[in-house]
Amino acid sequence: MAEPRTRIDPTDPDIYLHGIPHAEFAGMRRDDPVCWIPQVRGSAGFDDEGYWAVTRHADVMAVSRNSETFSSRENTAIARFQPDMTREGIEMQQAILLNMDPPQHTAQRAIVSRGFTPRAINSLRAALQERASQIVGSVGTESGDFVTDIACELPLQAIAELLGVPQEDRGNVFEWSNSMIGYDDPEFSGADPMESAMGLLGYAMQMADERQTCPRDDIVTTLVKAEIAGEHLSVDEFGFFVLMLAVAGNETTRNAISHGMHALLSNPDQWELFKSSRPRTAVDEFVRWGSPINVFQRTTTHDTVLAGVPIPRGQRVAMFYGSANYDETVFTDPYTFDITRSPNPHLGFGGSGAHFCLGANLARLEIDLIFNAIADHMPDISLAGPAQRLRSGWINGIKHLPVRYR
Ligand code: HEM
Questions:
Q1: Which domain covers residue 87, as residue numbers?
Q2: Which of 72, 148, 369, 375 has the fewest beta carbons closer than 10 A?
Q3: Tens digits of per-residue pLDDT, 118-131?
Q4: In a domain, 134, yes or no
């Protein structure tokens, strides 16, 4: 195995405390774009044999598009299955769409895509617009934490609206969802993530069970009853799908909103431009700039070659979106935050392969609605202190963002 030329492990949470380590990634893209990192001491929190770090836009695309060679089956989050993980734990991971390969992935994605058609997403617009105005309108203080006051709630409301979760159950569902995603940083949440996951799983399975016996005109019924090529989701499969939405659609969108606000307020000309012309291109620039998911991984199914580098079978290949989104061969002035950037072929929602973010259009709608509500109701918002980052090499997160609202 070639000796690594890089000095950093780009999954090391400590190097993200001041944001994406741009200088290091630029060096890797230039000198060592497919680079062996001998040991994981990053977000996974345990040692492992190592992985390949892929940092250029073109190579991340190539990996994303080739699920035959680069499998999602051994867990796409940056840790490989932990050695002491039980068979049940592994089966649970593999029951999630993100960790499936074709043909299982193709079949299940065809079913769940039913809930994410442009029509289905557009039907949520009015309710989410009202929610966005309520969230912004209900901030009663002069100053506060933008993340907890504003960025947190709409992503959860959007998933609840999508699934038709009744108002009286939303408190529980939101609590389970938030505590599940706090595992990377114990300070972030008090509750036990595993217990919360079980709580949410049980709730979702009960929902599916009810729809199987008493079908309604809603998305849950569509997913558990309607047959697509003879297939529908079982009660268990539906439960895991909801679990995944709570992870995939919650913190990601929250961070895209927080990064967008932080970048706009740090670049006052861009905030003025947003307020006066509301460019539709802004949302994708927030996602590129923040790259809320820093990395996902694949495992090679056979010996292969990527960008001239031989990679043996069974090794992990990590795609760093946080690097690819600043690739100077693709983006003009990548370190300039430009809400009118077009085209903007960022990989914040993944490469354009089979696993491309299913919720991308829902996320775009939410982000668009919340920023329009902020521009309408609190145009004088300003920064009141530095952003406090989440300590994670996997999620580019902002934990707290002190602001003055008026
Ligand atoms: C997949 C990012 C919002 C649901 C992905 C992937 C990325 C991503 C990078 C690709 C995973 C891979 O290639 O292995 C984001 C970002 C978001 C966001 C940055 C917000 C700005 C959402 C929302 C939902 C959602 C709102 C749903 C409510 C999913 C699902 C997948 C996925 C279900 C798995 C698709 C599959 O495996 O076929 N997302 N996501 N995401 N995302 Fe998102």
A1: 13-404
A2: 148
A3: 999 999 999 999 99
A4: yes
Determine, yes or no, domain membership for 70: yes
**Does 135 map to a domain?**
yes
C-alpha torsion angle, residues 327, 332, 336, 337 (rounded to 10): -90
Closest CA to 254 of 287, 282, 296, 294: 287
> Are 159 and 249 a contacting pair, CB within 8 Å?
yes
Domain assignment present for residue 8? The answer is no
The structural domain count of the chain equals: 1
Sequence-ordered list of residues with C-beta below 8 angstroms from that of 326, at least 6 positions apart, any chain: 20, 22, 25, 26, 334, 335
- The structure's pTM equals 0.94
CATH number at residue 176: 1.10.630.10
Ligand 1 centroid – CA 120 distance (Å): 17
Query: Could you give phi then psi for residue 387, rounded to 5 degrees?
Result: -70, 140
pLDDT 10s digits, 114-171: 899 999 999 999 999 999 999 999 999 999 999 999 999 999 999 999 999 999 999 9
Residues 187, 397: Cα–Cα separation, whole Å? 14
Residues with CB under 6 A from ligand 1: 64, 72, 76, 97-98, 109, 159, 244-245, 248-249, 252-253, 256, 287, 292-293, 296, 348-350, 355, 357-359, 362-363
CA-based nearest residue to 300, from 62, 57, 67, 4: 67
Structure tokens at 158: 């959007």
> What's the chain's length in residues?
406
Which atom of ligand 1 lies closest to the CA of 244?
Answer: 33
Asked casually if ipTM beats, i.e. exceeds, 0.95, the reply is yes
